[in-house]
Write a structure and sequence with these properties.
The protein is an all-alpha fold. The chain has 18 helices and four strands. The strands form two sheets. Strands 1-2 form a two-stranded antiparallel ribbon. A two-stranded antiparallel ribbon has the order 3-4. The longest helix has 34 residues. It is globular and about 75 Å long. The two termini are 23 Å apart.
Amino acid sequence: MNYTILQGLFYIAILVGLSIPLGNYIYKVMIGKKVFLSSIVQPVENGIYKVIGICRKDEMNAKKYAVSVVAFSVVGFIFLFLLQIMQGLVPFNPQDLNGVNWHQAFNTAASFVSNTNWQSYSGESTMSYTTQFLGLTVQNFVSAATGIAVLFALIRGFILNSKDTIGNFWVDITKVTLYVLIPLSFVVAILIASQGVVQTFGHYKDVITLESGAIKTVPLGPAASQIAIKQLGTNGGGFFGSNSTFPLENPTILSNFIESICLILIPAALCITFGKAVKNSKQGWTIFTTMMIIFVVALFATTFSEQFTGPVFSGVVNSGNMEGKEVIHGIGASSLWATATTAASNGSVNAMHDSFTPLGGMIPMFLMQLGEIIFGGVGSGLYGIIAFVMLTVFIAGLMVGRTPEFLGKKIEPYNMKMVCLIVLTPPLLTLLGTASAVMAPDVAEWISNSGAHGFSEILYAFSSLANNNGSAFAGFNANTVFTNIVGGIIMLLARFIPMIATIYLAGNLAKKKQVAATEGTLSTSNAMFVGLLIGVIFIFAALSFLPTLALGPIADYFITH
């Protein structure tokens, strides 16, 4: 247990240590300052602007920015859908895999375009190398960049004064991709490849196993490059079906640590970026502290549950619940990954969550149900928690009878309508999706367990789909027409309704004049506000999900104990 505690402390220390310089770097990139990569990347950046025919100085209003986001995503969706359908006709397909069926292609295209990366397939038996690197990996980059671009549109809403524009989407997404995501992914890909993560275009290999002497086919592919951005971009879609439990995707203790740091690195760094951008570093650290407090509590609860609440058998030394976990990782690293991947909007797994204890499985589920705001997705996690900050300020303003303000902007009815769209869309879609699945005639065939645990499998799946996470309990059969279509629609709505609301919120804030802080202005950068914000987040989530949690993991706990 002492080792597990030290591992968690070391993880947090490294995360904070890397977040500060990365946050400062992203800030410089997005305001146009020169960075150490400028001499290399700027000619490429200028060439892209010339090819697509835009001027970096052109500004967009909220409507044009939103249309650009949607149009870009629609084109990406269509391309990825068609690539899957026709993958049998394109090169780099050494296993001669056929085209993907239409409903799975729809689900996968929706999943990767929405930065969810939910997978109802096994990559090694379904997707060709071309589909993986040209379709899925590309979307890993651009869907992540889209989330960060929208975040910066919102940031401009706070810092601009009486303006009708909030930046240029094409400039934002280009800068994020070229200066942040590609360089970081290159470094991480080299590091994990050095640990044994495979990167090749060669055919799958037949090997003779040492244990039985049987011939076993080992899947290969250009995995390291996809896994790097899978982790950094809070994507989570594995190159292979078993994701980061697979030895060629996550082979060593060091690769596991690197990949787990990448889960939260950019979302954490963006808190620092936000503070610098709004000229209020305390505000960035307040949000970071709020996220970290909830993350640490969740990590402790998950680890404690897996270590001490597992079943104890007579005559067997209880070493915690190791079912579904890799021995090389153990309970500590498995619990850390499960907490981080569901706190961030990532969804990759290094253990099977379906095999966690009832309470250990509930914590990752609840982290998703909070709205993926505890670090959350790159960009989307921060603009999600900013919506909760504005909700908290609004509630506090009602208590004291003052017009609420945040970062010098008055929060008025239109702003709260957009905030409500951001915070209410994921829980509504979670509950509607769960209800529709439970009532489906074939639902008993989709789950591997009955009763409360079976309900938990369904609830977890739709919590994941509706919060752009992508992880699964692994006991739910997702590859059905119902889940592929309904799940795909949920992923798209859960991504783009809050995203468009955020853009319009940014546009409205940018039009407002800055108001000076007075003695009556609520401080949003002190310990009291951190406590208030945490309280609002938990009350909101409890009111939304406590009944379903009572029917699922809570009931499962009492049944098994």
